[in-house]
Design a protein that fits this description.
The chain is α+β, with helices and mostly antiparallel strands. It has helices at residues 17-28, 45-48, 70-81, 103-116, 164-168, 202-215, 251-275, 307-312, 376-379, 382-402, 408-417, and strands at residues 5-13, 33-36, 53-55, 88-90, 97-100, 120-122, 126-132, 137-144, 147-158, 173-175, 185-186, 189-192, 227-230, 237-240, 243-244, 283-287, 297-299, 319-323, 327-329, 337-339, 347-350, 362-364. A hairpin with a 2-residue loop joins strand 8 and strand 9 (147-158). Helix 3 (70-81) packs across helix 4 (103-116) and helix 10 (382-402) packs across helix 11. InterPro entries: FAD/NAD-bd_sf, HdrA-like. It comes from Pukyongiella litopenaei.
Length: 422
């Protein structure tokens, strides 16, 4: 049995970009907020899977046009105070504008902004169970380091990435694309010990991959050399080139994925040391802490953003957030497929895509919001997660205040007062 109970207006499950956005949105809308995170730090894939870039803050194009502000901008401002430039970086591989991150400073920035906004954060804790009536969530049971405890709230946000809260509530959900396909996982690696004057030659990197594939039982399928950059405020090299198919969501498959990814990373750096000038003294500094998971469960929402919404750049009166990242699908490992956002370069996320089907006081943020299998390739990135989280948090705060889920109009009004872009 839970050892104690605590009352909140809003409880957020998950401390990635969507969860932080939701907590900030709810707190700035006047709610008392708790955030539950399974790791010992916040940040989601940016810190737990070494995805050292925020994607989705800017439109694609010749110049960076901002698509996300509000809660996301609060986090960028705090990182700037910690010495991270957060200037738009134009990826030579994809043509997208991204924000390069320092994961350790990001962890501290997220701690600070949530503390400054009065959010109670529970690290090393996860939602283990939940209670509900027919159409409302009443409480969640959290498993923490000191046992189980109960958080009671008027409204809840599932920003867990894997739909953990929706899962324990028994919410219907789609796995992957609904036909057994789950987007490939990634194993970004960080390499230290490069010579100070090392210039990264893509042709040499491609040849190193070809040699790796002759030695390893596990192939690297990217043929373009992958995506790489220098880590800000260091001489380290970050490389996203290992993608592997994920056959299902079993613990056994995740275990094999982690073990295989680590073996591949170690051998790959050995090959770099042998064959690429400047890497002679290099070593594998880091994988993980876990593989980069792109897709798992999709809980039922009241609206699914469709492929057509993205490629037409659909704008709508019930929109509560912008999404500007192109569709990026990794259905086949190492062979990403891109489709551009139409219209003005962004489309609207409607409020109903954030609202759980059949549950009045449950909202979604980040990669669990309603989207069809192709649109999902656009909404899942972290910049967009901040925007959907901000909106979900405001909606949850208004739900807690009035006892009923709001329409889009009041949510839009609060978000615009708080500096969000819609």
């Amino acid at each position: 049995m839970p050892r104690h109970e605590t009352q909140y207006d809003v409880v957020v499950a998950g401390g990635g970009a969507g969860g932080v956005g939701a907590a900030l949105g709810a707190a700035r809308a006047g709610a008392r907020v708790a955030l539950v995170e399974k790791y010992g730090f916040l940040g989601g894939a940016a810190t737990n899977a070494q995805v050292l870039a925020y994607c989705g803050f800017f439109h694609q194009g010749a110049d960076p046009v901002q698509a996300v502000a509000g809660a996301g901008e609060i986090v960028l401002d705090e990182m700037r105070r910690l010495g991270v430039a957060c200037t738009p970086y134009h990826s030579p591989t994809t043509g997208n504008w991204i924000v390069l991150l320092d994961p350790e400073r990001l962890k501290i920035a997220l701690d600070r902004v949530l503390m400054a906004h009065g959010v109670d954060v529970f690290l090393h804790s996860r939602v283990a169970a939940a209670s509900r009536t027919a159409e409302r969530v009443e409480s969640v049971t959290v498993a923490g380091m000191d046992g189980r405890f109960r958080l009671i709230a008027e409204s809840f946000v599932d920003a867990s990435g894997d739909a953990n809260l929706a899962l324990v509530l028994g919410q219907p959900m789609r796995l992957g694309d609904g036909e057994g396909r789950i987007q490939a996982y990634s194993m970004p690696i960080r390499v230290s010990g490069l010579a100070a004057d090392t210039a990264i030659d893509r042709a040499r990197m491609i040849r190193a991959i070809e040699l790796f594939n002759t030695r390893s039982p596990h192939r690297i399928d990217r043929t373009d050399g992958g995506i790489y950059t220098r880590v800000p405020a260091s001489s380290d090299f970050w490389w996203l080139v290992i993608d592997r198919a994920m056959p299902d969501l079993s613990s056994q498959s995740f275990t094999r994925a982690e073990q295989t990814g680590r073996e591949m990373a170690l051998l790959l750096v050995d090959v770099l040391r042998e064959t690429v000038p400047g890497f002679e003294g290099a070593w594998l500094a880091q994988t993980g802490p876990q593989i980069g998971v792109r897709e798992t469960r999709h809980p039922a929402a009241r609206y699914e953003i469709g492929h057509g919404d993205v490629i037409r750049g659909r704008l709508r009166e019930d929109g509560v957030a912008r999404a500007a990242w192109p569709i990026e699908l990794h259905s086949e490992a190492g062979r990403p497929i891109y489709e551009q956002v139409g219209g003005k370069g962004y489309y609207h996320i409607p409020l109903d895509a954030l609202h759980a089907r059949g549950i009045e006081n449950l909202w979604y943020a980040g990669r669990v919001i309603g989207a069809d299998p192709r649109a999902y390739g656009s909404i899942r990135v972290m910049g967009t997660a901040f925007a959907s989280g901000d909106a979900a948090g405001v909606a949850a705060a208004l739900t807690a205040r009035t006892g009923a889920a709001p329409d889009a109009g009041p949510v839009r009004a609060v978000l615009q007062d708080l500096g969000a872009l819609i």
